[in-house]
Amino acid sequence: MKTVKMTAVGGPEVLVFQEAPEPEIASTTHIKVRLHAAGVNPIDTKVRRNGLFYPNAMPAVLGCDGAGEVVAVGSAVSRFKPGDPVWFCHGGLGREQGNYAEYTVLDQRWAALMPTSLSFREAAALPLVLITAWDALYERGGLQSGQTVLIHAGAGGVGHVAIQLAKLKGARVITTVSSEKKAEFVRSLGADEVVTYKPNGFTDAVLELTQGKGCDLVLDTVGPSVFQESIPVTAHFGRLVTLLDPGTFDLAEARMRNLLIGFELMLTPMLKDLHEARDRHVEILQQCAKWVDLRQLRVHISTPLPLKDAAEAHRLIEEGHVSGKVVLLTDQE
After folding, report:
1. Fewest CB within a 10 Å sphere: which of 73, 113, 237, 257?
2. For residue 314, what is the DSSP state?
């Protein structure tokens, strides 16, 4: 089968397009999937740049997100049959094979039936960002109807899904973007107010929109500087959730505001073999599939690329100008 393998730690050039043996079913509960598409996420670029999570795993196939058709099942598989379209977040961190490939094998427990209204490329773009945004907003953030949430980088992969999930919860959504084109995009997703990043930051604009009170919940998808500037725009007794390492910062204002500060790393259940938490991730995909088919949730793919162009996909993400998602296609469905 055709694959893209990470052959060393380094730049995008370490991703090599090559042939490899097809994986085979090794457990009675395994399913074999013919992958049609793989989502590309920032975590893929970080693993490539910084190293795999497991020792002696090189060369490795990256890519946590996949969507494809079941082609074979183990003798104890009860949830799927050959021909079923499935989507999942599995592998790609150095232990199990990732999805930059034509085939993969995984336990039936970690897959879900795709939304019927999505193409494979659309489905492959969603699992990681859906689970991340759900957990950050609903679990860590405790978002409730009527609250105000600030979502940073609303045009990004997680951000554009988080806007929609927040609106489904009945929240007022303020989001930050870097251009007027992205502002138009996030408004189309349901954002109520949009703040364009400026050299002097976003604090004044957000406080003006909230009459000086700040937001009940802030979701940081960007990093240390944005996290730190988000503290004074989080309402007293509010919540500030970040997807990244916030760095070293002064806690005095956060303490004065009685903030709950949360971290969201949706890979933890996969890395630590927390199976019940992973079951919950599959339940999230099942619920989101219903919303997708009801046209209440959608995905934006900015750049579909053939599998052999994985290095270019990584370059695009690292440039930081992508709206929505980048997807690799193993065929031209």
Report:
1. 237
2. H
Report the mean per-residue pLDDT for the chain.
Answer: 96
Residues in the chain: 333
- pLDDT of res. 249: 84
Question: What is the distance between the alpha carbons of residues 252 and 140, in angstroms, rounded to a whole number?
Answer: 22
Question: What gap in Å lies between CA 188 and CA 190, rounded to an integer?
Answer: 5
Pinpoint the alpha helices (H) of the chain.
Answer: 42-50, 120-124, 127-134, 157-168, 180-188, 203-209, 224-230, 252-256, 268-271, 275-293, 310-319
Residues of the chain with CATH 3.90.180.10: 2-126+293-329, 129-263
What per-residue string of b and e applies to 30-64 under the rule 16 or more CB within 10 Å gives b? bbbbbbbbbbbbbbbbebbeebbeeeeeebbbbbb
Radius of gyration of the chain, Cα coordinates, nearest whole angstrom: 20
Our CA dihedral for 160, 163, 167, 170, rounded to 10 degrees, sits at: 160
pLDDT tens figures, 287-321: 999 999 999 999 999 999 999 999 999 999 999 87
SS (H, E, C) 99-130: CCECEEEEEHHHEEECCCCCCHHHHHCCHHHH
- Measured distance CA(219)–CA(208) in Å, rounded: 19
- Using an 8 Å Cβ cutoff, are 28 and 45 in contact? no
Contact 128, 39 (CB under 8 A): yes
Q: Which fold has domain 129-263?
A: Quinone Oxidoreductase; Chain A, domain 1 (3.90.180)
Q: What is the pTM of this model?
A: 0.97
Mean pLDDT on 229-253: 95
Strands 15-19 and 85-89 come out as: unpaired
